[in-house]
Specification:
It contains 3 helices and 9 strands. The chain is α/β, with parallel strands linked by helices. It has a single domain, classed as 60s Ribosomal Protein L30, Chain: A (2-Layer Sandwich). Strands 1-2-9-7-8 form a 5-stranded mixed sheet, with helices on one face. A two-stranded antiparallel ribbon has the order 3-4. A two-stranded parallel sheet has the order 5-6. It starts with a helix and ends with a strand.
Length: 153
Amino acid sequence: MSSALQRLAQLGLTLPPVPEPLASYVPAAVMDGWVYTAGQLPLIEGVPLATGVVGEGVTVEEAARCARQCALNGLAAVEAVAGDLDRIRIVKVTGFVAGAPGFTQQPAVVNGASELLGDVLGADGVHARSAVGVASLPMGVPVEVELIARIRL
């Protein structure tokens, strides 16, 4: 069986540096073997992958790519505090999608995050999930994703 980092490499990806917090918080916190990430934005080297709202300037496909980047940034934050992605299981994902009035395809957008987690972690990436519509997000990005993971001892 290949490791999470090997599966990332097979996808042509590497873990990015953990994004710097935009305010007073930490990217991830551990409590009793649980890892809670802060909301992760679709940033690459501090720059948003996209800005705007879904259904009004941002397509569902573009937003799903943003959700994928959010999940990748979330994995980097988890790895930074857990030490090894092969010791974690994703339990819950919450995706926030900035959508135009009447937009209802939040689940399709957050699939970008869910699919990446499954591709990288296999069965340990399968999770419960919420996909929530919001009016706006920090930096004007269309998607934000939080992860809750459990560290195996």
